[in-house]
């Protein structure tokens, strides 16, 4: 009998890989599967906002684990780690984790006496003009005042690329430990000409006039010279928007310049030059100021534009946050379209799908200390979006049998013709955030009814049993990890057991790929 030359293809594999049998336990005592370094790093990084407590890990413990994983991955496979950190800052749009990762990459290479790559990695993650100073502030606070040459050179490359008049106006501030001039003096970037000289002059109060070539800075200085009592008169002029734009004035700087509230006239002058994210986060302010419906329609059209959504790289949760913050329904349809565009990679799946959304107490955990969105908000958004794309889906919130009136689970009925944002609000108001423990294996056993696949959105910290063994081995189990803790609740990487993670929709592309029998690789 032939053992290898058969028609049956090997099972497709996925990049997040764990051991085949559990060797540890989750934070709740369930069977825990350890992952390899790259897999643990990936799942932690794509859910890590750095410096934030989580339900089971302090900020110090979590940040230390992240730094150690970056350093180990750098030594094991520096090229992979370099590609990963660049992707983390660009496609994944996670700023702080990528900056910390680049610094730790350089530290690991330096400690090991290895040359090359660090300069390019540091330069590659710095994508905004405030970030060179941010990376230097991290390095000096964690690793001391001595900054190695590869880090200096990477920062210098980024400063030469990112520093211009408008970024100087927007980001330089006395409130920062490393101002633009400090970065220039420490790293000595090439070029810069009159702008860099002026930045140094201003930092050291040399009193030199702004060069004629620096038109934006001269225009801003002219505005700042106006008497405070005359400044609102600018908005009586038809060219107010052009004047502000020429001076590089953001909405934040205009608020300080006026030394008072922004009324409708001011907002309407600012809106044409505001960035996508700035408009998204100010919808409530537009309403409270009484911005006209005509201007609101222009904002709504931009918010709903798929090209603008893609260019902005906003995480889906940003649109839910804006929807909850804005008191007017005039934004609702635009935000519904925008979140749909942000979730474009959620696949259309044939057959029957069981979608399990973890709403245990540990998922009632803020992504950041100053934020209002919880991990179970993200789980609900992704789970409901997937449910709406499936040919037939059963969407279930789960915790354990001690909660939810003794049920431990609650089935959510998807209404034909409904919308994702209204689904999420109905989920919230309808008692689908249960709280309590995490009986993931029990929820799988209770609701699995010969589905073609099971998708679980969770932090994986199951309390009972072995989730990997809770359904037949031939049924694909896809775990979407929203917290990045060390131990997983099921094996992953092959044999119909796969794990993904993150706060964007990118990894959803792997599900149809795996179901066509193709192995999936890292998204970078």
Strands, count: 8
CATH class of one domain: Alpha Beta
Tell me roughly what share of residues is in helical segments.
Answer: 40-55%
Distance between the termini: 41 Å
Strand arrangement, major sheet: 5-4-3-6-7-8
Described by the principal axes of the CA atoms, the overall outline is globular
The residue ranges in which pLDDT falls below 50 over 5 or more consecutive positions are 1-9
CATH topology of one domain: Rossmann fold
Biggest pleated sheet: 6 strands, mixed
Q: Give average pLDDT, whole number.
A: 92
Q: How large, in whole angstroms, is the Cα Rg?
A: 26 Å
SS element count, helices: 24
CATH superfamily of one domain: von Willebrand factor, type A domain
Look at the helices and sheets and give the structural class: alpha/beta
Described by its quaternary structure, the protein is single chain
The portion of residues forming beta strands comes to 5-15%
- The CATH architecture term of one domain is 3-Layer(aba) Sandwich
Note the main attributes of this structure.
524 residues; 46% helix; six-stranded mixed sheet; alpha/beta; two-stranded antiparallel sheet; disordered N terminus; Rossmann fold
A few lines on this structure:
This protein is of the alpha/beta class and 524 residues long. Helix content is 46%, strand content 7%. Among the domains are: 49-91 and 94-203, no CATH class; 347-515, Rossmann fold.
How would you sum up this structure, described in words?
- The protein has helices spanning 37-45, 59-76, 78-89, 95-111, 118-125, 131-143, 149-162, 165-171, 180-187, 193-203, 215-224, 240-246, 251-258, 264-270, 276-281, 283-289, 293-304, 306-312, 316-325, 332-342, 375-389, 420-429, 440-447, 510-515, and strands at residues 24-25, 31-32, 352-358, 392-398, 409-412, 453-458, 477-481, 497-501.
- Among the domains are: 49-91 and 94-203, no CATH class; 347-515, Rossmann fold (3-Layer(aba) Sandwich), CATH 3.40.50.
- Strands 5-4-3-6-7-8 form a six-stranded mixed β-sheet, sandwiched between helices.
- 48% of the residues are buried.
- The longest helix is centred in the first third of the chain and has 18 residues, at 59-76.
- The protein is 46% helix and 7% strand.
- A hairpin with a 5-residue loop joins strand 1 and strand 2 (31-32).
- Helix 3 (78-89) runs antiparallel to helix 4 and helix 21 crosses helix 22 (420-429).
- With 524 residues, it is α/β, with parallel strands linked by helices.
- It is built from 24 helices and eight strands.
